[in-house]
Amino acid sequence: MTRNVVNTYLRQSISLIAGMSLLILLGINLWGNVGTTVMPVVISSVFQLVACIAYGFVWRWVMSSSPASMPTLYMSASGLRMFAAVVLVMGYCWLAESREAIRIFVIVFLVYYFVILAYDTIYFVKIEKKVKTNV
Protein backbone atom coordinates (compact mmCIF):
# COMPACT_ATOMS: atom_id res chain seq x y z
CA MET A 1 0.00 0.00 0.00
CA THR A 2 2.77 2.44 0.91
CA ARG A 3 4.50 2.22 -2.47
CA ASN A 4 1.19 2.71 -4.28
CA VAL A 5 0.30 5.73 -2.13
CA VAL A 6 3.65 7.39 -2.79
CA ASN A 7 3.56 6.65 -6.51
CA THR A 8 0.06 8.11 -6.76
CA TYR A 9 1.13 11.16 -4.74
CA LEU A 10 4.17 11.75 -6.94
CA ARG A 11 2.23 11.25 -10.17
CA GLN A 12 -0.57 13.60 -9.10
CA SER A 13 1.65 16.29 -7.63
CA ILE A 14 3.93 16.35 -10.69
CA SER A 15 0.87 16.52 -12.93
CA LEU A 16 -0.58 19.35 -10.84
CA ILE A 17 2.66 21.34 -10.98
CA ALA A 18 2.99 20.77 -14.73
CA GLY A 19 -0.63 21.78 -15.29
CA MET A 20 -0.25 24.95 -13.23
CA SER A 21 2.94 25.82 -15.10
CA LEU A 22 1.28 25.33 -18.47
CA LEU A 23 -1.74 27.44 -17.47
CA ILE A 24 0.44 30.24 -16.10
CA LEU A 25 2.68 30.19 -19.18
CA LEU A 26 -0.39 30.28 -21.42
CA GLY A 27 -1.69 33.27 -19.47
CA ILE A 28 1.68 34.97 -19.78
CA ASN A 29 1.66 34.49 -23.54
CA LEU A 30 -1.86 35.86 -23.84
CA TRP A 31 -1.36 38.94 -21.65
CA GLY A 32 2.30 39.66 -22.35
CA ASN A 33 4.98 40.42 -19.77
CA VAL A 34 6.89 37.26 -20.70
CA GLY A 35 10.31 38.60 -19.73
CA THR A 36 9.61 39.11 -16.04
CA THR A 37 7.30 36.16 -15.42
CA VAL A 38 9.02 33.11 -16.91
CA MET A 39 11.81 32.97 -14.32
CA PRO A 40 9.41 33.00 -11.33
CA VAL A 41 7.39 30.17 -12.93
CA VAL A 42 10.52 28.08 -13.49
CA ILE A 43 11.90 28.68 -9.99
CA SER A 44 8.54 28.04 -8.32
CA SER A 45 7.82 24.86 -10.26
CA VAL A 46 11.31 23.42 -9.67
CA PHE A 47 11.07 24.23 -5.95
CA GLN A 48 7.70 22.49 -5.67
CA LEU A 49 8.87 19.49 -7.72
CA VAL A 50 11.89 18.97 -5.48
CA ALA A 51 9.79 19.46 -2.33
CA CYS A 52 7.07 17.02 -3.47
CA ILE A 53 9.53 14.33 -4.56
CA ALA A 54 11.47 14.60 -1.29
CA TYR A 55 8.22 14.58 0.71
CA GLY A 56 7.00 11.46 -1.09
CA PHE A 57 10.18 9.50 -0.44
CA VAL A 58 10.42 10.59 3.18
CA TRP A 59 6.75 9.73 3.68
CA ARG A 60 7.35 6.21 2.32
CA TRP A 61 10.40 5.73 4.53
CA VAL A 62 8.66 6.93 7.72
CA MET A 63 5.47 4.97 6.98
CA SER A 64 7.42 1.74 6.51
CA SER A 65 9.76 2.23 9.48
CA SER A 66 7.64 4.03 12.09
CA PRO A 67 3.96 4.64 11.25
CA ALA A 68 3.34 6.16 14.69
CA SER A 69 5.61 9.08 13.72
CA MET A 70 3.40 10.24 10.84
CA PRO A 71 1.90 13.27 12.67
CA THR A 72 5.43 14.43 13.46
CA LEU A 73 6.38 13.99 9.81
CA TYR A 74 3.45 16.08 8.61
CA MET A 75 4.34 18.95 10.95
CA SER A 76 8.08 18.83 10.37
CA ALA A 77 7.77 18.50 6.59
CA SER A 78 5.43 21.49 6.45
CA GLY A 79 7.74 23.52 8.65
CA LEU A 80 10.80 22.58 6.61
CA ARG A 81 9.01 23.41 3.34
CA MET A 82 7.96 26.79 4.76
CA PHE A 83 11.50 27.55 5.94
CA ALA A 84 12.95 26.59 2.55
CA ALA A 85 10.32 28.75 0.84
CA VAL A 86 11.16 31.76 3.00
CA VAL A 87 14.88 31.31 2.30
CA LEU A 88 14.21 31.04 -1.44
CA VAL A 89 11.97 34.12 -1.51
CA MET A 90 14.47 36.15 0.54
CA GLY A 91 17.28 35.05 -1.75
CA TYR A 92 15.29 36.09 -4.81
CA CYS A 93 14.45 39.43 -3.21
CA TRP A 94 18.13 40.01 -2.53
CA LEU A 95 19.11 39.19 -6.14
CA ALA A 96 16.16 40.77 -7.96
CA GLU A 97 16.58 43.79 -10.17
CA SER A 98 13.41 45.70 -9.30
CA ARG A 99 10.43 45.82 -6.97
CA GLU A 100 8.17 44.77 -9.83
CA ALA A 101 10.22 41.58 -10.35
CA ILE A 102 9.99 40.82 -6.62
CA ARG A 103 6.24 41.39 -6.60
CA ILE A 104 5.67 39.10 -9.60
CA PHE A 105 7.91 36.40 -8.12
CA VAL A 106 6.18 36.45 -4.74
CA ILE A 107 2.71 36.26 -6.32
CA VAL A 108 3.66 33.37 -8.61
CA PHE A 109 5.50 31.56 -5.83
CA LEU A 110 2.57 31.91 -3.42
CA VAL A 111 0.15 30.53 -6.00
CA TYR A 112 2.29 27.40 -6.37
CA TYR A 113 2.90 27.15 -2.62
CA PHE A 114 -0.75 27.38 -1.58
CA VAL A 115 -2.04 25.07 -4.31
CA ILE A 116 0.48 22.37 -3.37
CA LEU A 117 -0.19 22.95 0.34
CA ALA A 118 -3.92 22.43 -0.23
CA TYR A 119 -3.26 19.35 -2.38
CA ASP A 120 -0.95 17.81 0.24
CA THR A 121 -3.47 18.44 2.99
CA ILE A 122 -6.38 16.92 1.08
CA TYR A 123 -4.39 13.94 -0.19
CA PHE A 124 -2.84 12.96 3.12
CA VAL A 125 -6.08 13.47 5.08
CA LYS A 126 -7.70 10.95 2.73
CA ILE A 127 -4.77 8.54 3.22
CA GLU A 128 -4.89 8.85 7.00
CA LYS A 129 -8.64 8.19 6.98
CA LYS A 130 -8.08 5.03 4.93
CA VAL A 131 -5.32 3.89 7.28
CA LYS A 132 -7.49 4.49 10.37
CA THR A 133 -10.50 2.67 8.90
CA ASN A 134 -8.34 -0.34 7.88
CA VAL A 135 -6.94 -0.69 11.41
Would you kindly provide a brief summary of this structure?
The chain is mostly helical and 135 residues long. It has 4 helices and no strands.
Question: How would the blueprint of this fold be written?
Answer:
Blueprint: H1 2-31, H2 34-65, H3 70-95, H4 99-134
* Spans of at least 5 consecutive residues with low confidence: none
Report mean pLDDT, rounded to a whole number. Answer: 88
H-E order:
HHHH
Largest sheet: none
Strand content: under 5%
Q: Tags for this entry?
A:
135 residues, mainly alpha, 4 helices, 92% helix
3D architecture notes:
By secondary structure, the protein is mainly alpha-helical. It has helices at 2-31, 34-65, 70-95, 99-134. Helix 1 (2-31) runs antiparallel to helix 2 and helix 2 runs parallel beside helix 4 (99-134). The protein is elongated, with a radius of gyration of 17 Å. The mean pLDDT is 88.
